User: Fold this.
Amino acid sequence: MAPIVGKFKAAVNSWVAYSAGLRHLFHKPYTLRFPEQRYAVEAGFRGRHLLHLDRCTGCGICAWICPEKCITIVQRGDRWFPQYFYGRCCFCHFCTDYCPEFALEETVEYDIAEYTRELLVWSPERLAKPPAKKDNKYVFSVNGSRGASQVPEQGH
Amino acid sequence: MQAMSPTEPGAQTMTLSVGPQHSGSGHMRLIVELDGDIIVSAMPDPGYVHRGIEKIIELRNIIRSIPVIERPSIIDASNLNHAWVKAIEELQGVEPPARGQYLRCLINEMNRIMSHLYWLSIYGVFLGHTTMFMWPLGDRELFIDLAESLTGARITYSYLVPGGVRRDLPKGFAEEAIKRTKYFEKRLDEYENIFFKNPLFTSRAKGIGILTRERAIALGSTGPTLRGSGIDRDLRKDEPYAAYGELDFKVHTRPGGDSYSRAMVHMDEMRESSQLIRQILEKLPSGPVRRKAPIVVPRGETYARVESARGECSFYMIGEGGDKPYRARYITGSYRNLAAIPEVLKGVRLADMPTSWWSIDYWPVEADR
Amino acid sequence: MTQTATPPQTLKPSAEGEGWKARPIKLKIFGNLIAEVVHKGICMYCGACIASCPIDILFHSENEEPIMRGTCAACQVCYYSCPRIELPVAEIERRVFGRERTSEETILGIHLGSYSVRAKDPEILKNAQDGGAVSALMLYALDQKIIDYALVSGFTSLQPWKPGPMVARTKQELVENAGSQYTPGGQVGGLAEIAVPNRSVVDFQEERMALVGLPCELQGFWRMNSHWIAAPKIGRNLVFTIGLFCSKVFDYQKMMVDYVQGERGIDLRTVTKVNIKKNRMLIYTGDRLAIDEPVEVIAHAAREECNICVDYSAELADIAVGAIGSASGWSTVLTRTPRGEDILNGAVDAGYIEMKRLDPLGKGMKFLETLCERKRLRDPSAYIRHNSAFPRPEPKLMPLQVPTK
Amino acid sequence: MSLAHEREDSLVKTLKESFPSDIKEATVVRRSRINLVVAPDKIADIAVFLRDKLGYDHPSGVSAVDYNREGRFEIVYHLSSIKTRDQQDIVINLKESVPRNSPKAVSLVSVWPGVENYERESIEMFGIQFEGHPRPEKLFLNDNWDGPPPMRKEVRFPTD
Assistant:
């Protein structure tokens, strides 16, 4: 008797499994096609650093605290500024935390890939440029019944 | 359906080298002795992703070591970070403020869910169940998004520092988190319908890869592997740290000791953690989130341990007063479950090897350090 | 291997400060601070260096001087946060008050009004030094959510009556830490020690704070916030400061431990109030007056670091509070900024304090001015390399014109 | 350092009574942490006593520390107990010191099977020989590593 009941339960369970899968046939996918649809990260996202040249005193705390030692202090005229090598940076942002002067900030720019390693070395002037404004942003939102999906950002 | 008993010794057996390849999460090799289809013995050969983190820690000061100690298991970064920070604070005698403790528990529980979800998706793809590969990885985005607004990073947060946490809660975090955890619990029920009740899985997991209670204790296994053999051992309850003393939650165990019960322990813990997140957000006290702590490891020694997603992650740290520890012995959950793998794979059919092996949630990167 | 771009010609000069200075080859690190300030005996233990250190390795210590635990990163921030190295008062006043002080305000500094204030709450009055103005104003600011917590000087360490920075969020904590202590406590150091603002730039719920401090501590705070190498990040969540009148401060070991507990044999734990008034030292245990002696008895305990301080009436505070110039049981309050004025009037309307105007030409204010003047005549230049640029009165005093409101 | 230590003190007392001569030092370091320094030759039967009588059957790890200034290796067995419910949070650090020039120790795999991997790591990282170890080969380092044991203090890497 038991194997028949077992077989019947197995059939029911597998039907439950298939129906659970089929129900999601018409849900929208999560995936975003990157360059066209861009993921909207929030203000505090730890992306590329932004250097305020006027506040930086060249004290070197960022180079001292950097776990990957990817910051070197370079001289510009008679002042000193950090220069970042993004080939080694792990974006832990201890530098922005420990900078005593508000001179380093997080930006939401995360696409900083380059073709050559030399271009990954960001000089202070390049760090000082604010990130470019990018549109076609998508926000990950959850609405109870319909489920989670990526919806275009309302530009809040 | 009990697994076949291993054949008598001396029978003609074939040794098979499974690996070294990216076995779901880092390279590792299994030298498996087969008698026909049944695994007679399995000997893990770890070490392909060994980076010598214990040596690196001795050369860097304690703040610069934080990203290093998170690398063994980046999807469970904040629990490992918590073990490191707890060891330093015990030596320094610094006590983070209450709000900092609660935020630590919040990020730990979110990390536990993300780690279990990643485990579940690899579990699905090991059994060829690609829907089970897509869904958990997709739903992980719920919590990655929350962690990104809280700490600024998606996966490796380096959010805990000696003395507290680095940032306070952003505005509107609590409502969003409560909405997402409720939605997530509905998704967990769907996982059970499509995967855990599915006979395709249960027939390959129930009764497979038995780890008896005595062997689990003797081998020193920990985390869901231990709790899957019916032992209610959870550091958050036995040795309450951070704010776990003030939170009430249940430790989930399953008596079976087979792959199925280990898997279901993961599922129960995910529900428990999402309920814990809501509870933490309710009881969150006000006040500063960080206390000033020196970048110094005072003289002395301590053995601090934390319940990470894969089990107890511990630091035996010896300080001698400088800003670097004299010795930091780093034992992670997977390293302790390494001894259970041969035990679990004995007598299992080769086709069922992935289910019983991956139910231990063995993470080669975390074991090799 | 690195592409060095051409150096930018037109780098904008910094918002405040002297513009560009070549990076000195010889960096001024904590060692220089110790040599030029602490060992020269002019460190008044305000705690500005302790708060400003970016990597948090400077700490309070037993013998009232900053100590370093760990390895220094040579960033010069602590050196340029110390008010005893250099104190450009004119520039700080432009920053705090928006204008420099006029010639009549040479002695009392910029102040909008002078009042006599007493707290209405009996619980505050019981513990207060005189009128309980500081605790009452803080309580008003806490209740009206102007601030989230107040950094007051309380009893932190294990030794009884050893002051230290304390975070006060509730009335109970305020009352507990009310009353002045006449020994230094490193108040500004509490900014990084206890009330650590999260240092990241993104504006999360920033906790607003008010600071109570001696005149030298306020000098340290504003020095830390004005020099371009110092740490502007630390005080950014400050709403207003309350300064205390102060003639000089005593050494904890010599005054409390050796004299009061040693010679006079009074257990410091039982001491409830210490008051130095009209050149007499009054020490109460319970409500019994245990010691009533002239101040000269502990003259040897006076810290000689205070001999060079010329600021009696907390000239850089929003609200300056003290006992001199009012009847006993009342506190004299000088409001120096519009913000201070609003808080004081708000406290009166909300019924936290009762207030009487003090006539600027009256006997009390005259006495206050003479004390300020006597302190102003101390000669700081012998100690500080750069003169501390506190304006010095002309030799003979012109009669003050009544400032038209 | 905090609260009451009766459980830990009673444990230390029972240990001292049962092995008066062999235990060099038994101290309560921190809340629920006990250090137990024993002579290398007596560690085996102390281990059996710990496992059977006191119920410390769950090994949490083995650490080896290179005190090169004192010329010794220290091998620490971290033991916790699951059998006795009320001692779930206590960890006993069973320590033994072996001389640095001839680091020989007795393997405790027979007492706790779980320590096999940790001892293998100490073999390859510090060069300590464990007698009676079932498989004393390398664990993490690859087979053709002929360099010195990397975790010793005299092996200096270029500090970054």
